DNA sequence: AATGAATGAGAATTCATTCAT
DNA sequence: GATGAATGAATTCTCATTCAT
């Protein structure tokens, strides 16, 4: 309890500062000052500045993944699970805004090219996510509630990019659509793009010329 | 010619390095060395390291916007213009990979929160882009070639996020779908999400229960 | 017993680590961890990190000096005492390798220039050693078993340097001669350099031309 | 010329400070201050603090080795070359006191255990020295001017240790014999230990009992 | 006696930028 | 325009030591 109070304070402050100013522009001295601890204390709880980021990443992504796991386990059909996923995405986002922003901002630096031991772990977590989404899409394809025009895997990857990009622009203030509205639009967008035609009517799409 | 050879060399090298290692992890000394100029020379051509990034950003985004302007001017209907836009996006991307990656990586640092004079300029350019997309969507809505379920502006913003996110994940190697395939999928996805129902048939969507 | 078990563990671990990595490169945290005690416990048994070194130094040098005292007390002639001293040196070395290495490595830092209270104590112990060696040489000179060409004091100082340097190079792996062989060589070397000419023959050395 | 003035100043100051207080106890800030340059300037001329030590080591040892090479080339007999070597040792020492002390103090840290690329280079230089001394002893053994009771290599290693140890104790003020006197004593010591018996007289040594 | 979380004064190093040549 | 030596502020990290429990 008391033992981890400072640790949590550090993580909370760091999330906020990283989100606001970026990892590289946030000196450890500022984290310490705002968290009300000595600078050395950071290094009592974390290996390095990078270790602080790593903890934020892990705790946030683990929670996100657990949430998805949970909704998958509910056994709804693919289409409903997909909608649940989008809902979960935006709910979780709200509850962990600073953490999300931090991760959004820093992914290329810390997940991108450089192949380090811990970046491999991070990549793995993220690909776990793609795996979960693939699972949902496959279920929908099997139970007829979703119509995939591409492989489930490819579609899942695209969806991840879509969620990422819209979320990011929204959180960075690059676009103005309010978050709930964005969630609604994306839900709708996916529904239309992935919905099979109502029964009893032929899909006419193939006949189009383009 | 001779006057700008070193300038171009600097920009080319900087784009590559920023893309590979990130802005913050690329010392000016390395840019100078790889470009084959003295470190001081950087400061004859640019105000600062930030100025180098700024030039990459401006030249790249200006070219992109000009391309969109161009395709809008061709006077095709909204739907076709939208497809042209996606095509243009991926074409331009291919031709300016390093520059795009640089911008992708650094936007939050340099465009995000902090309101400086030059970040305002950059934001403006980006919002010009949203304006162009809005224009295309409005045209499609007016000429019946596109069906918007939300305002053209909101839809445009969402589309920008979608393009950004998928492009980024692809370029950072976070997802595996090859670029041309991704372009195809997105084209298809948008077509389904924004296509009006074939004439003579009522849109049944509204009747669904969900 | 139980009272000093942790103290001994600390000294043993510290000797080993100081010998392996050097005093400055051995954090107290590592000593504590390897000794299986808490970091604060170090400070119950010793005043400071320096105090740990001091204890190693004192205990080791005291034992060494006691051994010399002992062999001097046996009342052999000077020559034999000198050979006993060399033997004792290498025997003691073997039994206290880590401690010796620690002292070898750190002497200049902690015994050298800086005149502190405790460094004076240490210097005094070392000069006690020179005193003992001087005593042996004087005895040999008096009883005719050794031939000194310089004052006993000067010769003793030189011998100390000789023992120190060869021992050190050997322990640091700078030279390859095995320890027993080195002991033999030094014994022999001293014997030839300090041996009086066989009785009944004039020392011809003075007549040489060089 | 002017280009290297600051570099030399840094090396001179660093030698002095390392010799006085030890490498680990000399902050780079102090080197910079005393050398009259900015701290960053150190890193313009050297890779790291370690690089400064490395330069001192290399320049000093290279000069020493060149001197030995030189005296070997004079073609004197082994015995005289050995005496020249001792003379050269003490001459060079006088001319590079601070550098020698620095190297004396820091060898274990920087040459000892840890096998790094540059420590291998340093070890190699030092073993070159042993090689040179071996060469001299072999020559003396061949031309009859020296009597070796052990292999030339082993004797050379022992001699190196002897020179090292006595020099070191002298320079650290652990012993009081003045430098010239020490040189004389060592010369004499070696002469007696390695001198063949005058012609026409049998070596009686083997007959002794001990 | 024992613990270990917390401290904070330093340490080495980096790097964008300047300026005399 | 071009150079590159020099700068010094800023940054991350280390670690001996303390002290409340």
Which descriptors would you attach to this protein?
DNA-binding; 210 residues; mainly alpha; Tetracycline Repressor, domain 2; disordered C terminus; homotetramer
Q: Can you characterise this structure?
A:
The structure is a homotetramer of 210-residue chains. By secondary structure, chain A is an all-alpha fold. In chain A, helix 4 crosses helix 6. Chain A is elongated, with a radius of gyration of 20 Å. The C terminus of chain A is likely disordered. Chains in contact: A-B, C-D. Chain A binds a DNA duplex (21 and 21 nucleotides) through helix 3.
Brief characterization of the structure:
By secondary structure, chain A is an all-alpha fold. The first copy, chain A, is 74% helix and 0% strand.
């Amino acid at each position: 309890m008391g033992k981890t109070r400072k640790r949590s304070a550090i993580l909370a402050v760091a999330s906020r500062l990283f989100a606001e100013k970026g990892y590289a522009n946030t000196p450890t001295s500022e984290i310490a000052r705002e968290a009300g601890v000595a600078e050395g204390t950071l290094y009592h709880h974390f290996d390095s500045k990078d270790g602080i980021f790593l903890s934020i990443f892990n705790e946030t992504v683990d929670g996100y993944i657990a949430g998805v796991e949970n909704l998958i386990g509910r056994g709804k059909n693919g289409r409903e699970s997909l909608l649940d996923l989008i809902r979960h995405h935006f709910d979780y986002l709200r509850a962990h805004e600073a953490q999300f922003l931090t991760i959004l901002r820093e992914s290329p630096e810390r997940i991108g090219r450089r192949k380090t031991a811990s970046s491999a772990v991070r990549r793995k977590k993220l690909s776990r996510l793609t795996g979960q989404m693939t699972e949902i899409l496959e279920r929908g394809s099997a139970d007829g509630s979703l119509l995939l025009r591409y492989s489930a895997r490819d579609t899942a990857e695209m969806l991840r990019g879509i969620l990422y990009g819209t979320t990011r622009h929204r959180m960075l203030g690059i676009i103005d659509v309010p978050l709930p509205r964005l969630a609604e639009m994306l839900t709708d967008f996916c529904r239309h793009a992935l919905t099979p035609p109502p029964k009893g009517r032929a899909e006419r799409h193939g006949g189009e010329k383009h």
